């Protein structure tokens, strides 16, 4: 009888081998449910099958979108008046994960040597929620854009108003909207890019106030959550009723753009606007 050359590894050896397997080696797309090696998502972090854009940090988005980006108001963060320990701990963790001090990164970017004011919400910072400091940073950005006569690009990715800050978070909707209106009255361009997810008070305010509203493929866009809607209307909504493609069909979005094409599309829009302004 031939003796097998295969030697069964011991329990300790198996454990050692398992420990050497890197985390997150595989990914599953939440839209088409394709499973693939994480490296196939590329630097854009998109599904190779359906183009869904996975959630990325604000700093990564700035890096892959703009030729250069200079952050402003980096020191603005959650006011000290909010003393709840669990909330403070959540904010502290978010700062470490994202590398920013609030749920939006604001600054001046360049695309083909054109300057643009840019706000990028970070879904990893307390779900990109709209807090009082978030609203302050976005408002200041619009005011700077208005003063310097710059076009504005806003990337929204948010779970809505930050419940830990109560009424103060809801007031940011009106505060930012006033700054958007002042920018609009100055005849300046405002482009919104809806990213996954854009919901709640952000959808109900500045996310839907752009002159041009773009969306990434299959991004979740809505106001209330699916379960809240189901409990309210006592019916089950269609499967994709809050996906960007459905929102486009109903006229709330101007175009859906693949993340890999976004930089070029924004450059083209800013260039057209610049020519329009030059021609009077």
């Amino acid at each position: 009888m031939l003796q097998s050359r295969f030697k069964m590894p011991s329990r300790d050896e198996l454990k050692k081998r398992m420990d050497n397997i890197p985390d997150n080696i595989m990914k599953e797309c939440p839209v088409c449910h394709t499973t693939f090696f994480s490296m196939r998502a590329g630097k854009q972090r998109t599904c190779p099958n359906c183009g869904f854009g996975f959630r990325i940090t604000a700093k990564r988005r700035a890096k892959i979108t703009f030729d250069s980006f200079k952050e402003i108001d980096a020191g603005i963060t959650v006011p000290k008046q909010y003393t709840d320990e669990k909330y403070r701990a959540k904010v502290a963790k978010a700062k470490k994960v994202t590398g920013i001090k609030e749920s939006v990164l604001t600054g001046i970017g360049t695309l083909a040597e054109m300057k643009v004011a840019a706000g990028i919400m970070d879904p990893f910072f307390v779900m990109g929620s709209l807090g009082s400091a978030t609203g302050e940073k976005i408002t200041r950005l619009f005011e700077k854009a208005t003063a310097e006569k710059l076009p504005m690009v806003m990337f929204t990715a948010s779970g809505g108003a930050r419940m830990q800050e109560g009424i103060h978070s809801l007031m940011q909707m009106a505060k930012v909207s006033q700054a958007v209106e002042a920018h609009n009255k100055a005849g300046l361009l405002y482009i919104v890019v809806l990213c996954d997810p854009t919901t709640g008070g952000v959808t109900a305010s500045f996310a839907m106030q752009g002159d041009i509203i773009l969306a990434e493929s299959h991004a979740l866009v809505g106001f209330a959550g699916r379960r809240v809607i189901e409990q309210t209307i006592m019916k089950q909504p269609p499967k994709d009723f809050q996906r960007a493609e459905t929102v486009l069909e109903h006229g709330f979005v101007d175009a859906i753009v693949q993340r890999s094409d976004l930089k070029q599309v924004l450059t083209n829009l800013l260039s057209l606007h610049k020519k329009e302004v030059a021609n009077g």
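The CA atoms of residues 194 and 215 lie 4 Å apart. The first strand starts at residue 26 and ends at 28.
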